[in-house]
Amino acid sequence: MKKKQKSQIVYDYIEELVISGEIKPGERLPSEAKLCEILNVSRVSVRAGIEKLSAIGLVKKKKGGGTYVNKPNNENYLSVFTPTLLHNTDYLELLEIRRALDSLSVALCAKNITESGVRKLQAIIEEMEHLEEDDDFLTLDKKFHLLISKYSKNRFLHNIHIIMWDVIQKALRENYNKVTNYERIKEHRQIYDAIVHKDEDLARIYTVRHLEEIIDTFVCEYNLESQYEAIKKQKKS
Predict the structure, then answer these.
(1) For the chain, which terminal residue's Cβ has fewer other Cβ atoms within 10 angstroms, N or C?
(2) What is the pLDDT of residues 154-204, one digit of tens each?
(3) CA distance 182 to 7
């Protein structure tokens, strides 16, 4: 088993303090010296761990000294969950949640989207349709679905989508690449067309179908991999 880095020990410890509520938003973290003593690590490791937490917006350093847990606002009030999800999310479970939430987002988007929003979605679709096979599809896919959630005009829903895509990009890219690529562009075009015509029901149907295709493909790929690994083990034994 791979040994955990010292900075990750610091990161995990502070994350647990925040998630458990032992240290609340607006409160100060233990001093560097105290963290060194508690965790038996160096100041360099403490600073590195805090830098990681600062990068995701969970904590903030203040002038004059001290690091504090960020108070939630419209931009970061769900960010406290991101670190835990990066370590603990199963891709199939995430896809099942996406099937439900994307369906809601797209229906609200079809209802609320502006002409400017339609033009932005169209630009993404056109970029998708000019992709080469080896190009990075994830970036455009993320932009497309986050734009839909933005025009749902529900900020809470949009923030949840931001977190889901952050988890996909940082922790589940390998799983994503197995089942989602440029071949799915036509499914995005169908969703886009339904949004343009403000057909909420059709947009929802196409979105659910899109996610179900991905889920079915992933389950199939997972089963094939499991069978392959089982065969390899049998040959070794």
Answers:
(1) N
(2) 988 998 898 889 888 877 888 888 887 667 889 999 999 999 999 999 999
(3) 38
